[in-house]
């Protein structure tokens, strides 16, 4: 006896019948065929709607992916002192940067020494002492050799200082203090010598006076301890664009946290909404990899534009290249890491599908695990009920292990390609160990799980 439903919702024919009973009437063969055609058309329309929605979500996620990586990198570099110092620290030990710093400091030191005044004074002294004119004239011509000798000595001393560990420590400390001062100005936070008040950048004389007093006391001038604390401040300069810069920092802080999350959610929704989840996952992963390649290409283009724009007199090309590469190395590393993760995700999604290559790889792994597990079982190293449980819940254990690896990478503080390789290697080893344990249960149970079903289309 056929059941009835609400109006406008015809039911399929009963099993074994030639028509469907509807509201007390049996559908004819032609009516049943039309009913089935409408059902198929509705299903196709539903799949197309889901595919279109998933495509829109995926396009949005892919377009936001490079911006999300850049925002996260910029937020971490600007807002995190240790990250910023870690970014610029290698510059202090770079030979090209050291050479540039040495030359600049040497030029500054030599220019502040009046060599002509020294030679003129020497010539005047010799003349007053009654020295022969030739000797006096020779003294007047010592300016060039004296300047050359002075430069050689200063350059050697400065080079030794710049190449020392003390310079690296001073470099890191100076950059850390500069970073703190910049953040205080941009965020308006109190504390420190330099701070922002409205659109004015002010110097807190109180902290300067306290620092001078402490240094004088440390140097043995005990009377300086009586210097009182000052509450005065002076305005260093008025910055009309300061509020805009502060707003930009606040926006960057928000984008650096939320933009990557929004991008990830959009990609996840695209995979969930798609009719073929695995196919959409492969496309999303490969698309993300392509966008990371685009980001790397943009970085290479920006690097060349930067090098072309820097005058050699301001900064030598080699030093400029090292400075650019050092400052963006974490951004480049993030893009490379995400590229590797994308390729691994796409490969894993494909290998879980019904393709001939995927089925062959899974079969080979299962045969290898079964062979090793069987050998262990024959030697008495059986896993018993635990192995049989693992064999019966292969999909569950595989999902848990992969999810644990993904969570580990998400919680990793600034993961690198090496970190991804380590986590993926551990996941693969654990999965192989579980497969061997499932095959070493003993008995006649078939511990080889059938290939996953579904399709990529």
TrEMBL record:
Annotated transmembrane regions: 54-74, 251-273, 279-302, 333-353, 395-412, 419-441
Superkingdom as given in the UniProt entry: Bacteria
Chain positions covered by the region annotation Disordered: 1-28
Any coiled-coil regions, as ranges: none
UniProt keyword terms in alphabetical order: Membrane, Transmembrane, Transmembrane helix
Protein name per Swiss-Prot or TrEMBL: Integral membrane protein
Organism: Streptomyces alkaliterrae
């Amino acid at each position: 006896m056929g059941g009835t439903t609400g109006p406008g919702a015809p039911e399929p024919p009963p099993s074994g019948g030639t028509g469907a009973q509807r509201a007390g009437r049996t559908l004819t063969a032609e009516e049943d065929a039309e009913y089935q055609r409408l059902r198929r058309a509705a299903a196709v329309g539903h799949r197309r709607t889901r595919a279109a929605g998933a495509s829109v979500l995926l396009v949005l996620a892919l377009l936001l992916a490079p911006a999300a990586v850049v925002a996260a990198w910029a937020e971490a570099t600007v807002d995190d002192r240790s990250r910023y110092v870690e970014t610029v620290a290698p510059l202090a030990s770079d030979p090209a940067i050291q050479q540039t710093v040495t030359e600049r400091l040497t030029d500054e030191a030599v220019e502040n020494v009046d060599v002509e005044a020294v030679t003129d004074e020497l010539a005047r002294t010799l003349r007053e002492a009654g020295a022969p004119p030739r000797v006096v004239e020779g003294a007047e011509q010592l300016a060039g050799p004296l300047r050359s000798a002075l430069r050689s000595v200063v350059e050697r001393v400065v080079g030794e200082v710049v190449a020392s560990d003390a310079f690296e420590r001073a470099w890191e400390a100076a950059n850390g203090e500069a970073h703190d001062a910049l953040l205080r100005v941009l965020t308006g936070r109190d504390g420190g010598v330099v701070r922002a008040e409205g659109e004015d950048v002010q110097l807190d004389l109180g902290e300067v006076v306290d620092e001078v007093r402490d240094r004088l006391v440390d140097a043995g001038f005990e009377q300086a301890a009586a210097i009182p604390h000052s509450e005065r401040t002076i305005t260093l300069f008025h910055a009309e664009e300061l509020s805009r810069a502060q707003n930009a920092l606040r926006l960057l802080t928000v984008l650096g946290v939320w933009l990557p999350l929004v991008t990830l959610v959009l990609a996840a929704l695209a995979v969930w909404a798609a009719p073929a989840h695995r196919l959409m996952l492969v496309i999303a992963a490969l698309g993300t990899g392509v966008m990371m390649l685009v980001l790397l290409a943009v970085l290479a283009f920006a690097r060349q534009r930067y090098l072309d724009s820097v005058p050699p007199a301001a900064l030598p090309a080699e030093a400029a290249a090292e400075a650019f590469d050092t400052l963006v190395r974490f951004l480049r590393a993030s893009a490379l890491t995400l590229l590797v993760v994308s390729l691994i995700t796409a490969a894993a999604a494909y290998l879980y599908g019904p393709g001939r290559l995927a089925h062959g790889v899974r079969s080979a792994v299962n045969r290898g695990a079964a062979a090793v597990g069987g050998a262990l079982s024959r030697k008495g190293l059986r896993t018993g009920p635990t192995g049989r449980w693992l064999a019966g819940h292969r999909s569950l254990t595989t999902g848990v292990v992969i999810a644990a690896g993904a969570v580990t990478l998400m919680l990793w503080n600034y993961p690198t390609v090496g970190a991804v390789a380590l986590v993926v290697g551990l996941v693969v080893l654990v999965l192989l160990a579980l497969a061997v344990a499932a095959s070493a249960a003993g008995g006649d149970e078939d511990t080889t799980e059938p290939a996953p079903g579904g399709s990529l289309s």
